[in-house]
UniProtKB/TrEMBL annotation:
It catalyses: L-seryl-[protein] + ATP = O-phospho-L-seryl-[protein] + ADP + H(+); L-threonyl-[protein] + ATP = O-phospho-L-threonyl-[protein] + ADP + H(+); [DNA-directed RNA polymerase] + ATP = phospho-[DNA-directed RNA polymerase] + ADP + H(+). ATP binds at residues 20-28, 43-44. This is CYCLIN-DEPENDENT KINASE D1, cyclin-dependent kinase D11. Keywords: ATP-binding, Kinase, Nucleotide-binding, Phosphoprotein, Serine/threonine-protein kinase, Transferase. Belongs to the protein kinase superfamily. CMGC Ser/Thr protein kinase family. CDC2/CDKX subfamily. Gene3D superfamilies: Phosphorylase Kinase, domain 1, Transferase(Phosphotransferase) domain 1. The keyword ATP-binding applies.
Length: 413
């Protein structure tokens, strides 16, 4: 990519439209990419307010999404810092699985449920193959595109896993989707936590309401035990060694069929394998995808034919009379931000952005290298140095970011 190309990609590229939603770490806007004419979603994440000056959520999301290119995972197409915020640009998605489940006008056939759930597991299987735990699986993080494709989104809580001694925080997932080992305070856990959450999503698709809506962590365990019976040490030998383990009064499991009266025998069999107490005995996502539930009739609905909520009536996307709200840095601010002093300790907001921009540049670098069609709009000229043609996270001048990320990934809490 040439210098000219780089400056072309930043100016006046995105026209900001309405707010789409608000996540834990920032507002998400709809926007038009004037370069491609496509609608995109831009997540605005505040930079520079963290204790150590780096917003790990954003960097983590960029770093992991760079590695996760799959039809069932949201695509990060661009990232740039602007006015104290980092902007992550994603492909635009029309709705999410929560909206589908809640919409009383939608009838979900067994084949539709199978299709939505299969796409969920395919995206998750890809994460696990790349040693990434999502850790925030829930219906409103499963976005649905115009062609019915379901994609995993919101990787702000995601982490690499696989090292035997790695310790994590157990405060992950929305409570209703939290596996019993997390509720008992496990700090060493693996892909089974995502399997449990996926099983809760499957149950929610079948029931059309949250399956285990606990009101506190204790109540959550109570609801799990009421559904599947209190686990015994013979069922789950490691349970008694978990940090927050407490003995619960024994209750027997009701028949699974009584909880899901409309589900097929195949669906119940898969559910029981995913809702296995002992994470070591719980089915993997890959094995779940190979379960006969997916190959038996009715086969999963073609995604384009899946029922989705009626689109809300909105103002037209792109009126050329509208004054554009430019999200990328203007030429003027690029000039102000440039300069050799940018890495010297300075609390000035713009210089802070510039400092983070260096990290962002490194974190997103690979996408810029691989995606010629939709080039990254991070303006490398504002950082004073010309980037390598295909920068990687391991390159010499990315030591700072690498150190920060390594520290973060090693010491999760
Ligand atoms: P998040 O911070 O990723 O949880 O996003 C917050 C909300 O913004 C979501 O619940 C969605 O309503 C919306 N949103 C996020 N990403 C997209 C996207 N790619 N397309 C459309 N809406 C999105």
């Amino acid at each position: 990519m040439t210098e000219t190309d780089q400056s072309d990609t930043v100016s006046d590229r995105y026209l900001k439209r309405e707010v789409l939603g608000e996540g834990t770490y920032g507002v998400v806007y709809k926007a038009i990419d004037t370069k491609t004419g496509q609608t995109v979603a831009i997540k605005k994440i505040r930079l520079g307010k963290q204790k150590e000056g780096v917003n790990f959520t954003a960097l983590r999301e960029i770093k992991l999404l760079k590695e996760l290119k799959d039809p069932n995972i949201i695509e990060l197409t661009d990232a740039f810092p602007h006015e104290g915020n980092l902007h992550l640009v994603f492909e635009f998605m029309e709705t999410d699985l929560e909206a589908v489940i809640r919409d009383r006008n939608i009838f979900l056939s067994p084949a539709d449920i199978k299709s939505y759930f299969q796409m969920t597991l395919k995206g998750l299987a890809f994460c696990h193959r790349k040693w990434v735990l999502h850790r925030d699986m829930k219906p409103n993080n499963l976005l649905i595109g115009p062609n019915g494709q379901l994609k995993l989104a919101d990787f702000g809580l995601a982490r690499l896993f696989g090292s035997p001694d790695r310790r994590f925080t157990h405060q992950v997932f929305a409570r209703w989707y939290r596996a019993p080992e997390l509720l008992f305070g496990a700090k060493q856990y693996a892909s089974g936590v995502d399997v449990w959450a996926a099983a809760c999503i499957f149950a929610e698709l079948l029931l059309r309401r949250p399956f285990l809506p606990g009101t506190s962590d204790i109540d959550q365990l109570g609801k799990i035990f009421a559904a599947f019976g209190t686990p015994t040490p013979s069922q789950w030998p490691d349970m008694v060694y978990l940090p927050d383990y407490v003995e619960y009064q024994y209750v027997p499991a009701p028949p699974l069929r009584s909880l899901f009266p409309m589900a097929s025998g195949d669906a119940l069999d898969l559910l029981s394998k995913m809702f296995t107490y002992d994470p070591k005995a719980r089915i993997s996502v890959q094995r779940a995808l190979e379960h006969w539930y997916f190959s038996s009739a009715p086969l999963p609905t073609d995604p384009v034919k899946l029922p989705r909520p009626a689109p809300k009536s909105r103002a037209p996307d792109f009126d050329p009379q509208d004054g554009p709200t430019v999200l990328s840095p203007t030429r003027k601010s690029r000039r102000i931000m440039a300069g050799p002093e940018r890495f010297e300790g300075n609390s000035n907001q713009e210089e802070k952005i510039d400092e983070h921009a260096g990290e962002v540049r490194q974190a997103v670098g690979d996408i810029a290298g691989k995606n010629e069609q939709v080039p990254m709009s991070v303006d490398f000229s504002i950082f004073g140095t010309k980037p390598q043609s295909t920068p990687t996270i391991n390159s010499a001048d990315s030591c700072h970011l690498k150190r920060e990320l390594d520290r973060e990934f090693q010491h999760d809490e």
